Amino acid sequence: MSRERSKKYKSDLQKVDKTKIYPLEEGMKIIKELPARKFDESVDITVKLNLNKNQRIRGVIILPHTFGKTKRVVVIAKGEKAEEAKKAGADFIGDADIIDKIQKGWFDFDAVIATPDMMKEVSKLGPTLGKKGLMPNPKTGTVTFEIKKAVDEAKRGRTEYKSDKDGIIGISVGRASMEAEKILENAKEFFHSLSKIRPQDIKGEYIKSFTLSRTMSPGVKIDFKEIL
Questions:
Q1: What CATH number does residue 144 fall under?
Q2: Are both 25 and 49 inside the same structural domain?
Q3: Helix (H) or strand (E) holding 42
Q4: How far is 156 from 49, CA to CA, in rounded Å?
């Protein structure tokens, strides 16, 4: 049974031609002109990729324009690297004590960075942090001795994205209150980041659809080929 849509959603739907694929700038104009809700909605992109059941896409991006709350960063390190984390502005720093605290159910943070020498102990947190997408990983730059760089990137809005089992990626690129130009720049940066990590063995189109929306709005289909 399909869910009943709100009157506001149905009103928004009348402003979107579901049969049309819009240029990014035009689609963004529609999204920005939709009536405001009682909260500052996120502006989101949903991409459907042409992946087989065994393929997954995972990437990292630092968007040009930050939005939302500043991320609270945990650094798991010892000695000089712990001191480096402190100077870099990490919110929580420790080693065995932090690991124990997380194991007991503490999750008052948004990003976790660990030095390679700590990963044997940090691996205990795999089942816990993995479910939340917070497990440190060398491929995403969160297992590193370059602590200052990693903390700086996390604080600047470093965002990880990955495809689900159906080849779909969802990512927020702004807030409804932001200037359209800033959201556009974030959207383009994500698109170019995604394009760079196309698997070599994909045949045909890599991206099947590219949709722009707000938290409570209908989606606007975007001509992603025009972005290139």
A1: 3.40.50.790
A2: yes
A3: strand 42-49
A4: 27
Of 175, 228, 224, 173, residue with least CA distance to 48: 224
Whether residues 87 and 134 share a domain: the answer is: yes
| Per-residue pLDDT tens digits for 49-73 | 999 888 889 898 989 998 877 889 9
Check if the beta carbon of residue 170 is closer than 8 Å to that of residue 43: no
Q: Which residues are CB-contacts of 140 (< 8 A; sequence separation ≥ 6)?
A: 58, 60, 160
Give 12's pLDDT tier (boundaries 50, 70, 90): low
Counting Cβ atoms within 10 Å, is residue 104 exposed (0-12), middle (13-18) or buried (19+)?
A: exposed
pLDDT of 2 reads 45
- pLDDT for 29 equals 94
* CATH assignment at residue 47: 3.30.190.20
Could you give the CA distance from residue 147 to residue 83 in angstroms, rounded to a whole number?
10
CA atoms of 106 and 103, how far apart (whole Å): 7
Indicate whether 89 and 58 sit together in one domain: no
Judged against a pLDDT cut of 70, whether residue 6 lies above it is answered with no
Looking at the chain, list the stretches that DSSP marks H as alpha helix, in order from N- to C-terminal side: 7-13, 24-33, 79-88, 96-103, 119-122, 126-131, 147-155, 180-196, 224-227
* Full-model pTM: 0.73
Question: Which residue segment(s) compose the domain that 82 sits in?
Answer: 73-156
pLDDT for position 159: 84
